Amino acid sequence: MADKQKTLVLLKPDALQRDLLGEIVGRFERKGLKFVAMKFIRLSDEMLDEHYAHLSDKPFFASLKAFMMQTPVVGMVLEGYDAISEVRKIVGSTNPREADAGTIRADLSMNVPSNLIHASDSVEAADTEIKRFFREEEIFDYEKITDRYIFGEGI
Ligand code: DAT
Ligand code: MG
């Protein structure tokens, strides 16, 4: 049986401006991922320095941060089997024009940094990023009547 994991997703300002929140949320719902946390977040300069620390020496760092602060973002924690890699698969590659058709970025966007969505890329990143944006009491453990179909016996 695969591991049940939690992963952190942010819907970026372009998703909010383009009214694509429902479309994106719907894709994760249809997959069977469980939404265990969700809220608006106004990202600060400090949060973005941490979140994009791996890009701090890039020429586009300042404009990336400015883009991410244009509006609030929608933060969520999704749970499911292999949720970290499964969500990344549904999101697609960083450059929407190189992403596979059928992914959120390929189907709905054309450019960086306006690629709609952030998703954690490893177990370590998911752990750090969930803690960066959510307090423990904002993450909910609850039963759904569909759990037995989605998370039941199987491989
Ligand atoms: P990902 O978001 O797929 O995890 P990343 O962590 O390498 O990709 O980069 C974070 C974000 O930075 C990415 O979603 C969009 C932006 N970005 C990456 N490369 C860029 C570039 N060459 N020019 C402008 N923005 C870029
Ligand atoms: Mg990344």
UniProtKB/TrEMBL annotation:
It comes from the Bacteria. InterPro entries: NDK-like_dom, NDK-like_dom_sf, Nucleoside_diP_kinase, Nucleoside_diP_kinase_AS. Residues 4-141 form the Nucleoside diphosphate kinase-like domain. Its main location: cytoplasm. GO terms for biological process: CTP biosynthetic process; GTP biosynthetic process; UTP biosynthetic process. The active site is at H118. Its EC number is 2.7.4.6. ATP binds at K12, F60, R88, T94, R105, N115. It catalyses: a ribonucleoside 5'-diphosphate + ATP = a ribonucleoside 5'-triphosphate + ADP; a 2'-deoxyribonucleoside 5'-diphosphate + ATP = a 2'-deoxyribonucleoside 5'-triphosphate + ADP. One of its GO terms (molecular function) is ATP binding. SUPFAM superfamilies: Nucleoside diphosphate kinase, NDK (SSF54919). Keywords: ATP-binding, Cytoplasm, Kinase, Magnesium, Metal-binding, Nucleotide metabolism, Nucleotide-binding, Phosphoprotein, Transferase. CDD domains: NDPk_I. The keyword Phosphoprotein applies. GO terms for cellular component: cytoplasm. Its cofactor is Mg(2+). The keyword Repeat does not apply. It is found in: Cytoplasm. Pfam families: NDK. Belongs to the NDK family. PANTHER family: NUCLEOSIDE DIPHOSPHATE KINASE (PTHR11349). HAMAP family: NDP_kinase. Major role in the synthesis of nucleoside triphosphates other than ATP. The ATP gamma phosphate is transferred to the NDP beta phosphate via a ping-pong mechanism, using a phosphorylated active-site intermediate. Homotetramer. NCBIfam families: PRK00668.1. This is Nucleoside diphosphate kinase. It comes from Candidatus Uhrbacteria bacterium CG10_big_fil_rev_8_21_14_0_10_48_16. The gene is ndk.
